Amino acid sequence: MSLRSRMLLQRVLFALKAHNVRYRQTSGAGSVLWETPVRPLCCSNRRHAPAPASTGPSSLSFRSHTCGELRSDHVGQKVTLCGWVQYLRQDLFVILRDFSGLTQVLIPQEESANNLKAALCGLAVESVVKVTGTVRKRPAGQENKLMPTGEIEILAQNLEVFNICRKLPFEMKEFVKKSEALRMQYRYLALRSSQMQKNLRLRSQLVMKMREYLCNVHGFVDVETPTLFKRTPGGAKEFVVPSREPGLFYSLPQSPQQFKQLLMVAGVDRYFQIARCYRDEGSKPDRQPEFTQVDIEMSFVDQAGIMALVEGMLQFSWPAEKGPLQVPFQVMTYNEAMRDYGVDKPDTRFNMKLIDLSEVFSSTKIEFLRSALSQSEGSIQAICVPSGAKHFTGKDLDVLKQTAKAQFGQELSLVLVRDDGTLKSPLKKLLSVPETENLLSRAEAKPGDLLLIAAGSLRVVLPLLGNLRLQCAQLLESHGLSLRDPSAFHFLWVVDFPLFLPKEDNPEELDSAHHPFTAPRTEDTDLLLSEPHKVRGQHYDLVLNGCEIGGGSIRIHKASLQLHVLKNILKEDPSLLSHLLEALDSGAPPHGGIALGLDRLVSVVVGASSIRDVIAFPKSFRGHDLMSHAPDTVSEEELKPYHISIKWPTEQRGGGGGGGSAGK
Amino acid sequence: MSLRSRMLLQRVLFALKAHNVRYRQTSGAGSVLWETPVRPLCCSNRRHAPAPASTGPSSLSFRSHTCGELRSDHVGQKVTLCGWVQYLRQDLFVILRDFSGLTQVLIPQEESANNLKAALCGLAVESVVKVTGTVRKRPAGQENKLMPTGEIEILAQNLEVFNICRKLPFEMKEFVKKSEALRMQYRYLALRSSQMQKNLRLRSQLVMKMREYLCNVHGFVDVETPTLFKRTPGGAKEFVVPSREPGLFYSLPQSPQQFKQLLMVAGVDRYFQIARCYRDEGSKPDRQPEFTQVDIEMSFVDQAGIMALVEGMLQFSWPAEKGPLQVPFQVMTYNEAMRDYGVDKPDTRFNMKLIDLSEVFSSTKIEFLRSALSQSEGSIQAICVPSGAKHFTGKDLDVLKQTAKAQFGQELSLVLVRDDGTLKSPLKKLLSVPETENLLSRAEAKPGDLLLIAAGSLRVVLPLLGNLRLQCAQLLESHGLSLRDPSAFHFLWVVDFPLFLPKEDNPEELDSAHHPFTAPRTEDTDLLLSEPHKVRGQHYDLVLNGCEIGGGSIRIHKASLQLHVLKNILKEDPSLLSHLLEALDSGAPPHGGIALGLDRLVSVVVGASSIRDVIAFPKSFRGHDLMSHAPDTVSEEELKPYHISIKWPTEQRGGGGGGGSAGK
Question: What is the pLDDT of residues A523-544, one digit of tens each?
């Protein structure tokens, strides 16, 4: 940086060009109660003409341009920018920032502009100002190619200080290094980062395009559904909201499921809503008690129709800078996903599929393999980690074995294929020559690869290897291998889920795999009477890069079938859903829909590590708003109208007395 | 209706044209558990091609057209419609309905179609079916001009019954006559009416256009703000939401006010949100505990900018069928509105302004008028009701006097101008000749008019006459006079409100007229120290046909000024808003915004008498969801995780014991 020559050049330029600098500084001293207001309003109640631009980001504004838009085309124009002081450089430049970027403001050096110079040089970082000046080309060699506005600078002619930044909890440039708690407490500062600005704007744009697609292209109706609803019996994850009627509570619903179906019964035909949903996950870490879903429901449609709609919507709304999206998306059955990836939301950005070795070992003499195969649903499965033998350390291998043991109660057999093709494995001596050959050929293992082999029930072995597959991908990447393209977006439909699953606490009984409103697959309908556990549902999950970002189904639209599922299969009291059953019997059309998790979708799109990075004011890990301190105490007096009182846990019902019985 | 000739014509037509009727009826008998599912899904997990249309209201659907779109252009086309059986006519026609309208389906009469005929004739009203057939021109003379599809009918060739409507609580055509409670309980049936379908669709369209205007035209960012927030101290109208941490509560905010301002501090520049807001109005009737506002905030803008933005937004999004909207809207100061209309949200669709008669009676001998004028802010005001003397009955006049007495504690003097120009009034004998002449000329009273005169403090007299003005308009209209054009939309800005008002319970102290974040008008800023009650705020209300549909302000962006208002003027504890004060001190830009009440706006646009008619699932008059029965009881067991218990009012704290003290 040739500062000297730069300053010389400036002097020459100044000498050549007379500036008519008007200088109006607001009274910014700390002693006055408030500074001269920004800009006098017209005194009459009829107002003056709005600012020059009538559309675009600077319409109706004090500025003529944003801080990110000036280019060499604008040279010679008089412009007005508003923004924050990013930093000052050597009493020569003020770098001004707004949401759109940075612009360099040149501080006039000539004597006639002494007041302006002093005011500019005295600006505290993060103060908010308006600068009027002329766009100049930067002197040759002084361009900044890394800065979109790096070809130009603004020669300041006028400054208005809107607000002096008096107090920052820390230097802005130190901000990223601070604890997340501090960044959450000063969320309004964290949001000033270009990354957060981009995330919020991309989210807004994405949602806007989705709306255009649904409303304008396909005739959907945006309908708002209530969030003060009736509590679902047993809905342990629903927040309660006391009403002023003693003992009566609203609840905040986890989704508008019932309402969207009722809208179909109501003949609304095509409904969508960007819906706020609530889930009280209590002590679970990293929870957001409120989240947003893109909620869609259609009448007279089948599974293929909903899938095509969602593909079209994502293609239409996909941010241009992320490259075009190919449709249709890949489709995989639940069984295929479990078989090949050991999980119902496979990350298909890389291969490393599960390999069934049961046949290889069908007549093995190895005792633990024989015993595994003889058990119910017994199987021998493996994954082959490319160059895993080469790159994984002993510690890596221990971690994998430990995961198997701790999370799945399962032993893992490792086979390392040395560069010379020989094996290193506890199994080595036990394997026959044909077994070894079959194993390597079946697994397509090459020198340097690592085989992870698990033997046992498919119910354990598949999820185990599905988990290790992802862990191995992370390990390989931590060793510098690129396995998953961070700019790739692999969408995948998973279909043909079982409609019911055995209850965790009582495997004799069945639970809905998703929810009790999912329709069975047509050809499985008869099984509902005989073998309900074999019925597949018309349910579809949408997976992106191994994250489940949505799920939906064709719903049951016949009251008789819905009643059978509730009463005979799920053993639930159907009277709790009587209004829905009644609605189905009043002329319900065939219908189906989907809900996409917007926060998760956007976080994958922008590559954020947490959904907190795509939410303006997220709750902390523990569900707190660290800025305003919510949740907070409320006095017993203020609780009175709601006919509730606090039961402090230390008292253990002692003092509180009759609460429980009074509740009857 | 020449039914005979019609049937004859049909026979001829059928004889001329051979129909290849395929007939597939689903097993609709009540004895089977469920009927054959709608449409077999492709067996493979790869799906079949979507339905013909790829965009529009019938895209991806079982139907080819909606029930409202077929015209004579479509004659000869084979179409598929899906919808509800509106009614059957003489075993000849099924009238099919969907959201878009009605289509007449002709039942084939030839013998070869006996099965199809039987199925169609046996359809229960409100059953859901798919009909395939050919579009025919209706026989000459049989067209229905009142029906958009009245030129055509569909000759049915195939029927699929999706769902039989087995049970309706009442006949659909009787529905409008039923009690609102019943219509709320069966909301999904009420929503099938063409009016409700129109209302929901117009609302969706209006919001979509607003979003396009804000996002696409002016670069606004749609940001979602939390609804689980910290309770505002003293925020009696905020619902509380217990958390799982003992004694800690979230609250549901009445508006995103704090968040929108923090977003400006965060540099988001232009924010909007169609925001769900909550207000617990307890025992107030006709309340909606949740409602929706169009929430807007902008940086680097003044009052004129926000007003121009809103005008542009409404013009852009205005439904075409309501005629174009003229901008800019009329602007009126608060003082002008009170002076001329006696209210801060004048209905400017009609004149009948308040008339100041103080001068007319400045030297009157009439005792009660003299005494009124001599009191502080004493005044004599009137309205002249055109042809009120002619049309109002004695009972009408009594009602007006009673309103004055009961609601305002004020006597009202009536002067009826007879057709011959003579007066009928208790005042008649007391008025001098010049007074009478002045009165009539000042009031521009013509024969047949009615003068309502009130004398007293302006604080009472203006609101009284403002109220009577509206009541007189209603009375005139009830007598068949058209005063307000029901298709007219009069938008009006009311500006220059006082920033503070005397507290109702303690007039010595001041309260914010709107909220404590409103900036004072520039020229009034100095009065904040000396005479705060004289300060006008940079606040603006948007009024439509006499309804307040929005309000906003330029906000205080200096911490020092905000602190002064909170602490010295409003006498509030500023520590409760410390995060906001801290934010203002960290570089807050000048900013302002507005919030429009979406439910109210839409209800005025569609001419609905209640906002319940523009909300899909509103709460009842008492805040209940009559369909699902919310709010509902929750067991003490389910309240346990929230550390609260119910205090039953009959127990009067007796049995419950320590609740109150335990809370300390």
Answer: 999 999 999 999 999 999 999 9
